[in-house]
Amino acid sequence: MGLSPARKGFAEASAAWPSHPPGACLADACALIVFHAFGAAGMSDAGRAAMQGGEVFVIAETVWEITRKAADGKLPPFAPFEDLGFPAFLRERGYKSLAVDWDIAARAATLPPHHRDPMDRMLIATSLATGLPIITNDAAFAAYGVTLVW
What we know:
Elements: H1 5-13, E1 25-27, H2 29-37, H3 45-52, E2 56-58, H4 60-71, H5 79-84, H6 86-92, E3 96-97, H7 102-110, H8 118-130, E4 134-135, E5 148-149
Parallel strand pairs: 1-2, 1-4, 2-3, 4-5
């Protein structure tokens, strides 16, 4: 007797995330802004290399955060908003989208309060679920045991 459709969906949702190639990372908003608007100023060689090579994933929440800051005038003008729009800019540069699923969203809500920013908590929960390191200069992420690159 097989699983009911509802139970089958639950089993699939709780399955492990697929493995990613060595060097794959998640980029936070700061990494994308610093790398593209400020020429990677302050990033280590490892941070620059991570942004330039391999697979760099960006979650939708990070895109929302950056486009919201740009709309509010909190970002300096730079290429993503001059010609293409931010999603097209990311696609053209080879960034990959990574969806935040329900389990990740629920985990983000229950993380200890080391970091209060909801966008960053989604990124941290995504890293915990996938094992992907995060390219960020936010030292508060380390309290969650995620791997950081900067």
